[in-house]
């Protein structure tokens, strides 16, 4: 790992919506996509700003998507997490709750 963000076109390809030109009736489930990402679980919410600055190079940055999300750990604990670039592998399974929240 070199600490650099992956190329923007690689990330954009991951989040590009699927295409089905034969669809006659809107099927919203066709547009749901699970993307495996790692997240840094922030135990103390007061430390989110500090952690974001420390993890700046490894943070997933996309337009209209917040990098800080509500997550659930494998133990079932809920908290805040900072989404990390896809090239960073997780040490445990984390789930983003309610999908990704877009600003807009």
Short description:
The protein has helices at residues 8-15, 48-54, and strands at 39-42, 68-72, 78-83, 95-96.
Structural class: alpha+beta
* Rounded radius of gyration (Å): 15 Å
Described by its quaternary structure, the protein is single chain
DSSP strand (E) fraction? 15-25%
- N-to-C series of helices and strands: HEHEEE
As residue ranges, the low-confidence spans are 95-104
Helix content: 10-25%
Quickly count the helices.
2
Number of domains: 1
Mean pLDDT equals: 76
Described by the principal axes of the CA atoms, the overall outline is elongated
Short key terms for the protein model shown above:
104 residues, alpha+beta, four-stranded antiparallel sheet, 4 strands, 16% strand, elongated, disordered C terminus
Describe, in plain words, how this protein is organized in 3D:
It is a single chain. This protein has 104 residues and is of the alpha+beta class. The chain has one domain. It is 14% helix and 16% strand. Strands 1-3-2-4 form a four-stranded antiparallel sheet, with helices on one face. It is elongated and about 50 Å long. The termini are far apart.
What topology emerges from the helices and strands here?
Elements: H1 8-15, E1 39-42, H2 48-54, E2 68-72, E3 78-83, E4 95-96
Antiparallel strand pairs: 1-3, 2-3, 2-4
């Amino acid at each position: 790992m070199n600490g650099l963000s992956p190329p923007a076109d690689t990330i954009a390809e991951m989040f590009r919506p699927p295409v089905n030109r034969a669809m006659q009736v809107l099927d919203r489930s066709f547009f749901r996509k699970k993307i495996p990402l790692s997240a840094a679980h922030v135990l103390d919410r007061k430390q989110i700003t500090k952690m974001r600055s420390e993890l700046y190079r490894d943070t997933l940055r996309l337009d209209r998507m917040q990098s800080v999300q509500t997550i659930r750990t494998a133990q079932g604990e809920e908290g805040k997490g900072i989404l990390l670039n896809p090239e960073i592998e997780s040490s445990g399974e984390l789930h983003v709750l309610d999908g990704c929240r877009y600003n807009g």
